């Protein structure tokens, strides 16, 4: 019934299988990719016609993780997958970025790419598999896709490159790299990475290793296409626009060339808009049977702008703002911008500016992430906001776009490798970047500003990190790499190449291109030029703050960490959390305890932390006979008082141990809630504690000499003298208890000899 086509490839120690023809047969192209026991289905559909007046390519990519793939039910009230998570958004971008440049110019049919994770084995990451499935589905669909592309994840362990490690393996104690690469047969298309300060040579080697492995996947996709590809679409021939462009060049070419020499972005845009209006006025003054004819010509103004800017850079080395190709714009950095934030920085590079703030929180402020892998928690968050006023525009405000999510994650990856471990710095960290001006790489401004704000907050990062965006102008074999690109150089250029790192090495690399890929020579040149740019930016950052402050902000909560024995965790928490809630309520400090016995006590008041720490120490510490403690009277009974000491222990102060002289009633000496000094006299084999107040100076807590005569030793059977079998009148209580009773009571009221006469009969 099914005409199923399958290809398989042994790749990285597992079998990669691509199947089509059985599932989603009404889509233009559908491929189910399996690697290990992870399965991703990708379906591609394309519109057969273009909407009237449409002049852009409407490609949409959606990646979704089905919780059932991992045998899990989604959390929350509705119990179904909802809006895209951060990971799903980022993976959608991973698929979109390398395939978008591979559609021909002038192709404006809407295309929908949907990738769904159907099975997840807990080891094989589905994002790479989704990229491969999308490439294969596009390749067999018949749409004019100039692929296929391959994709690979690369790790770096013990000096060796590792193909397709799990995320936990990529950056564990030995892993130093998590790199994702997409490439065609001839060139790299997209790079996304986080690294633990790799050198340029190590990073370049990883990219080339990934490219080589991607070629194997491309071969498998081609084999599948030879069996199952649909007939390619017939494209309408693209009209030759060169004559119209030359016509526009004669009309406004000089105006545009002059405009793109203006340094100020606002003035430059005004001049460019004036040139466009000049062309519009010219064509409107002519007689036209069809207004769409000259409107189509006006759309080619951007082609002319691109041609003018690119030729000026390639031939004359003349950039838009007059800088040299490797020159970074003026930088101004400052910290401590805001008075009440825990850390803040203002980073300005040319006409790009970011206000970055750092907030420190306790463990309960960690971000909970519910995904295929299960629940996890992150103690470092970086949120990037790009309001429309930053580019002088009116636009939608208040929602997080895919672009903002991607830029924030790039900055997160750049800063994460230099953060201290949770055992050394037990804080939850949130960095917030608000872009207030933008004209070229606000994500790299976020890296620089975010780093400064964390150092201002007292986060002990290993080394400062800076970032720079590189551009490329490529014409045939001629190319020029640009440092610190402007927004216009990004739009009119061929590459957006972002590198972040410390003086020791690279922490993050991201690359997107608009052409059919770049070569090793171009990447090597870009990495070397970026290294010099990063060093310059670090020098400018050091003028504001060269290292983390010695202590955290006075407005941040203090956190103290202590380790207790695992067997004592239950005692600290108490039944139903009673004890730990009491500690929090009484001291005002927050207390968190994990399964390993690590306790974090936090408060902005140091005295609250100290009180909670002493309380917990009292719970877990073993009482010592002969040691003096401070306690609180918690209960008074006829024969003495129970005193709570060391936080979680109670002991009895017998009435005879309250003072050296006779005490009629315990309430004559103590009251509930009173603080007293006690000495541990005895701990029996059941853990019951006998305490004494009379041998401790209640003012100073010093031990007093015990002047009371020693007691007689206890006789057999607990010190009860006499023959237990004799007549009642002959049974006396000897030893300690008998003597004490004789001291404190009249003979007629004692149990020794005679009969007790009730008070109401005495009269």
TrEMBL record:
Cofactor(s) the record lists: Mg(2+)
Domain S1 motif span(s) in chain numbering: 626-694
GO biological process, one term: mRNA catabolic process
Annotated EC: 2.7.7.8
Catalysed reaction equations from the record: RNA(n+1) + phosphate = RNA(n) + a ribonucleoside 5'-diphosphate
Location(s) in or outside the cell: Cytoplasm
A Pfam family this chain is assigned to: RNase_PH
The entry's keywords: Cytoplasm, Magnesium, Metal-binding, Nucleotidyltransferase, RNA-binding, Transferase
Annotated residues for binding of Mg(2+): 490, 496
GO cellular component, as recorded: cytosol
NCBIfam families the record matches: polynuc_phos (TIGR03591), PRK11824.1 (NF008805)
PANTHER family noted in UniProt: POLYRIBONUCLEOTIDE NUCLEOTIDYLTRANSFERASE, POLYRIBONUCLEOTIDE NUCLEOTIDYLTRANSFERASE 1, MITOCHONDRIAL
Similarity-based family: Belongs to the polyribonucleotide nucleotidyltransferase family.
Name the record gives this protein: Polyribonucleotide nucleotidyltransferase
Organism lineage string: Bacteria, Pseudomonadati, Pseudomonadota, Alphaproteobacteria, Sphingomonadales
């Amino acid at each position: 019934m099914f005409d199923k086509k399958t290809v398989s490839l042994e790749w990285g120690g597992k079998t990669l299988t691509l199947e089509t023809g059985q599932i989603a047969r009404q889509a233009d192209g559908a491929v189910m990719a399996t690697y290990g026991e992870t399965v991703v289905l990708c379906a591609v559909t394309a519109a057969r016609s273009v909407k009237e007046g449409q002049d852009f390519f409407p490609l949409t990519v959606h990646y979704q993780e089905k919780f059932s793939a991992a045998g899990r039910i989604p959390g929350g009230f509705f119990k179904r997958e909802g809006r895209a998570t951060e990971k799903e958004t980022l993976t959608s971008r991973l698929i979109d970025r390398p395939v978008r440049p591979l559609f021909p110019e002038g192709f404006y049919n809407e295309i929908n790419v949907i990738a769904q994770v159907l099975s997840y084995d807990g080891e094989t990451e589905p994002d790479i598999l989704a990229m491969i499935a999308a490439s294969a589905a596009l390749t067999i669909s018949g749409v004019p896709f100039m692929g296929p592309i391959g994709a690979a994840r690369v790790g770096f362990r013990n000096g060796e490159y590792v193909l397709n490690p799990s995320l936990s393996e990529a950056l564990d104690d030995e892993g130093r790299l998590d790199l994702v690469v997409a490439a065609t047969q001839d060139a790299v298309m997209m790079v996304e990475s986080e690294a633990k300060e790799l050198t340029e040579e190590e990073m370049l080697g990883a990219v080339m290793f990934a490219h080589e492995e991607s070629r194997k996947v491309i071969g498998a996709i081609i084999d599948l296409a030879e069996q199952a590809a649909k007939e390619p679409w017939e494209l309408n021939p693209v009209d030759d626009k060169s004559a119209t462009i030359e016509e526009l060049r004669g009309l406004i070419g000089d105006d545009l060339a002059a405009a793109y020499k203006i340094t100020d972005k606002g003035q430059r845009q005004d001049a460019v808009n004036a040139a466009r209006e000049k062309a519009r006025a010219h064509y409107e003054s002519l007689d036209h049977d069809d207004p769409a004819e000259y409107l189509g010509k006006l759309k080619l103004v951007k082609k002319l702008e691109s041609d003018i800017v690119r030729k000026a850079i390639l031939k004359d080395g003349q950039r838009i703002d007059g800088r040299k190709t490797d020159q970074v714009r003026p930088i101004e950095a400052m910290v401590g911008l805001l008075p009440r934030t825990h850390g803040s920085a203002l980073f300005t590079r040319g006409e790009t500016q970011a206000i970055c703030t750092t907030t420190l929180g306790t463990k309960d402020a960690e971000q909970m992430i519910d995904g295929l892998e299960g629940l996890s928690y992150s103690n470092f968050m970086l949120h990037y906001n790009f309001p429309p006023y930053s580019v002088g525009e009116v636009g939608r405000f208040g929602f997080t776009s895919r672009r903002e999510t991607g830029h924030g994650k790039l900055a997160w990856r750049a800063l994460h490798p230099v953060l201290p471990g949770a055992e050394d710095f037990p804080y939850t960290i949130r960095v917030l970047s608000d872009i207030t001006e933008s004209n070229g790489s606000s994500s790299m401004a976020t890296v620089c500003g975010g780093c400064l704000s964390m150092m201002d907050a007292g986060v002990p990062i290993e080394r400062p990190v800076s970032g720079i965006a590189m551009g490329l102008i490529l014409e045939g074999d001629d190319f020029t790499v640009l440092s610190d690109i402007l927004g216009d150089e990004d739009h009119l250029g061929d590459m957006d190449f972002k590198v972040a790192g410390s003086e020791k090495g690279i922490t993050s690399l991201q690359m997107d291109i608009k052409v059919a890929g770049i070569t090793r020579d171009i990447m090597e040149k870009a990495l070397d030029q970026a290294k010099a740019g990063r060093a310059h930016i670090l020098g400018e950052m050091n003028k504001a703050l060269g290292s983390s402050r010695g202590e955290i902000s006075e407005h941040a909560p203090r956190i103290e960490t202590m380790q207790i024995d695992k067997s004592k965790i239950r005692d600290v928490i108490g039944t139903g959390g009673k004890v730990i809630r009491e500690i929090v309520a009484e001291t005002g400090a927050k207390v968190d305890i994990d399964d390993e016995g690590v306790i974090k006590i936090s408060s902005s008041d140091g005295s609250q932390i100290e009180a909670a720490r002493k309380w917990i120490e009292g719970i877990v510490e073993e009482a010592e006979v002969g040691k003096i403690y401070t306690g609180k009277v918690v209960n008074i009974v006829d024969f003495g008082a129970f005193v709570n000491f060391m936080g979680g222990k109670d002991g009895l102060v017998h009435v005879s141990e309250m003072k050296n002289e006779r005490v009629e009633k315990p309430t004559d000496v103590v009251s509930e809630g009173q603080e007293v000094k006690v000495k541990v006299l005895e701990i029996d084999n059941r853990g019951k504690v006998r305490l004494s107040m009379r041998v401790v100076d209640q003012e100073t807590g010093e031990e007093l000499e015990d002047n009371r005569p020693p007691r007689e030793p206890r006789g057999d059977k607990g010190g009860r003298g006499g023959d237990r079998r004799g007549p009642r009148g002959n049974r006396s209580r000897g030893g300690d208890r008998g003597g004490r009773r004789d001291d404190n009571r009249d003979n007629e009221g004692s149990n020794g000899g005679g009969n007790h006469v009730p008070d109401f009969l005495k009269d």
